[in-house]
Fold Outer membrane beta-barrel protein.
Amino acid sequence: MKKLFTLSMLFMATVLFAQEEEVTEKKLNISGSVDAYYKTNLTSTDVGSQNTGTSFANETGFALGMANVIASYEGEKTGAVADLAFGPRGLEAVGGDDAIFVNQLYAYWNVSESTTLTLGRFNTYLGYEVISPTGNFNYSTSFMFSYGPFSHVGLKADFALSDDFSLMLAVMNVTDENFNGTSGGSVPGAYSIGTQLGYKGQFLNFYYDNDAKLGFEIDYTGGFDVSDEFYLGINAAYQKNDDLDTGFYGVALYPQYSFSDAFALGLRGEYFAENGDYGVIGLGVTDADGDASVFATTLTGSYTIENLVIKPELRLDSGSEDGAFFDNDSEATKSLAAFTLAAIYSF
């Protein structure tokens, strides 16, 4: 009987330990994605650096995107996220050797049911698009995303004011700077502030850094379910740095229609213009009046097979100035058409 009792207790202890271990393991989550693509210019040669002037997916021929690995741990009131990005898209997103491979790295504390504090590096709250291709419908990115912030390092507080309203307040280094002061950074000693007001999926965003790097930006991001199949996304932004006399403004619409659970079609129509004599238009040309612009139309298909998404994409960029692009004869032109086929796998 003693032996039987001892064996029973050992069995129960083993079961309880296994259950506790299972609960603990569930708190740690590993996720991520990989992506690659093929791109060809339809109205220009594929040789050289001819591209749209936006971030990511600029190489012609077969090219790599990034491998994104995210480890997150969630406790009862606290947690942490380590988001690592490898490959050309990841390195362009994180920028510089001081942030190599680190897309996001932060810890958070749920102070109450309505308040969360976050400290570390986190992706920007401005704009409709994000760094990871899994979070965007279009594979290529917009001008407003490319010339706005990518990430921030600092402290932010998120407040759920009600079921409909939310508020975020942040104190940060200037955009895309991991260090501040004597330890590094291109603008030591400079800080920025940020706010976001949300209402039922619509967000009004502000950023300000006293012209230390970006300057001032106001941004609206939102969207509406027109029907069960049709969604319309909207993004508008205005940015200005008075000291450098640079800036931009623009607006983009993202209509998307789901034909089935597996296939959807989406269009991005964007107008983007420089705002200042030294605008950030990114097309290699500027206008004497400081108002060079571009209109970009991107049509993207999205076909899903299990965790794999295949995205064929046709993009046409039309600039206001000659010399923005070059045609097949290397003559200056205002437009560039390109086709991209991307594959994105999530896990």
Remarks:
- The CA atoms of residues 149 and 175 lie 6 Å apart.
